[in-house]
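Q: I'm building a small set of examples for a reading group on sequence design. Run inverse folding on the following structure and report the sequence directly after it, with nothing in between.
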């Protein structure tokens, strides 16, 4: 066993129960690209944020046009060994609670129970006017029905289901509205992030630090919480967690 894995095992045994916080690194092996490189820098254009989405119709058209291309492969992604290992840890009782920054619901697909989707889930769409939740799959049917030309396009896709697509004709997109009240529809998620750079997840680490709880990071690259972590295990999180599970 490598020194890193020995260290991880020692830390893991130092507490009866662990809270797990996951990010994009968990899902990269599922083919869902991750937004930040190993130095925590944005690899591509940043994901769409709430305010411009609400205020600018072209931003919404661009989002839904790209999302129409990105959603099918995104929705078909399958859990990785990282998701499976974390589910095994939950079943063992050692890591009962999990909070994820990911919006792909791959933990749920791996049968993980009571997952907290910190940033929401891309599989859901919410009406900003009446609050009604609907399925992203239904939105997809409506998008393609109203914009048949979308089916002829193809593109790479990013972890929020968005696609790298420069559309000349994005402003031609007809964006479906709420079937209940004709209000504006939005993917049911908050700001998408990774690498603990997003403050909303970093705050859990700060809280743990203030409570004198150990923080153990398993990640292949820098995270914002590196400075306050008790231990940092570098490596592929799927491989590392699989090794941890097999040593239990
Ligand atoms: Zn509505």
């Amino acid at each position: 066993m490598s020194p890193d894995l020995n260290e991880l095992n020692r830390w893991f045994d130092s507490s009866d129960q662990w809270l797990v916080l996951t990010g994009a690194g968990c899902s990269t092996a599922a083919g869902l690209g991750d937004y930040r490189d190993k130095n925590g820098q944005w690899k591509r254009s940043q994901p769409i944020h709430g305010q411009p989405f609400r205020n600018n119709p072209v931003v919404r058209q661009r989002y839904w046009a790209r999302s129409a291309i990105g959603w099918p492969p995104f929705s078909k992604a399958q859990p990785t060994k990282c998701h499976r290992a974390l589910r095994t840890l939950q079943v063992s009782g050692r890591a009962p609670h999990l909070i994820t920054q990911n919006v792909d619901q791959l933990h749920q697909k791996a049968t993980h129970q009571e997952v907290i989707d910190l940033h929401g889930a891309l599989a859901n769409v919410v009406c900003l006017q009446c609050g009604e939740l609907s399925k992203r799959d239904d939105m997809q049917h409506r998008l393609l029905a109203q914009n048949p030309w979308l089916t002829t396009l193809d593109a790479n896709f990013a972890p929020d289901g968005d696609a790298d697509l420069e559309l000349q004709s994005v402003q031609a997109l007809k964006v479906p509205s709420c079937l209940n009240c004709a209000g504006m529809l939005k993917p049911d998620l908050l700001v998408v992030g990774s690498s603990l750079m997003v403050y909303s997840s970093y705050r859990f680490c700060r809280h743990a630090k203030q409570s004198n709880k150990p923080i153990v990071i398993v990640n292949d690259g820098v995270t914002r919480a590196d400075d306050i972590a008790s231990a940092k295990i570098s490596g592929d999180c799927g491989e590392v967690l699989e090794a941890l599970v097999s040593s239990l």
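The chain has eight helices and eight strands.
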